[in-house]
């Protein structure tokens, strides 16, 4: 009976020691694991979705750029529309960035280019060709551009009065930011 108690005590001590060192070993992973936890209040948690290799939430240092976030996510895939993002954009805490496709994903072959409008220089008439943008929202987009300058990421469109999450979801594959 004394041997059993000794074995249980030793196993418990080994378990406690192992639990202390295992988190330290797993937090040294630099592979961009989106589930990686870091106990550092200076870092930012930022999400990325769309045409990246590993969509998810990542932990980055302050003043990181969209390029840093894309690198953590394994890079963009071959269907990423490079006109839909600026790599030098400084990412913001708790934000979610979307990398839009250049080809229609509902097409079986996926080689049919999407019809898109440049929201940074489109006229009212061009904006109204996008499904979901009418007279009022096109005026709001133009007014927002005039007051705030260009849109630096697709998600900036949600700063326009009348465009919320649901409208953005409908529009995000129909717009781009630069040539």
Describe the structure.
The protein is α/β, with parallel strands linked by helices. The protein has 3 domains: 1-30; 44-99; 117-176, Photosystem II 12 kDa extrinsic protein (DNA polymerase, domain 1). Helices cover 32% and strands 11% of the residues. It is built from 5 helices and 5 strands. The protein has helices at residues 2-26, 66-72, 124-127, 135-148, 165-171, and strands at 44-50, 56-60, 96-99, 117-118, 175-176. The protein has a 3-stranded mixed sheet with strand order 2-1-3, covered by helices on one side. A hairpin with a 5-residue loop joins strand 1 and strand 2 (56-60). It starts with a helix and ends with a strand. 22% of the residues are buried.
Summarize the structure.
The chain has 179 residues and is of the alpha/beta class.
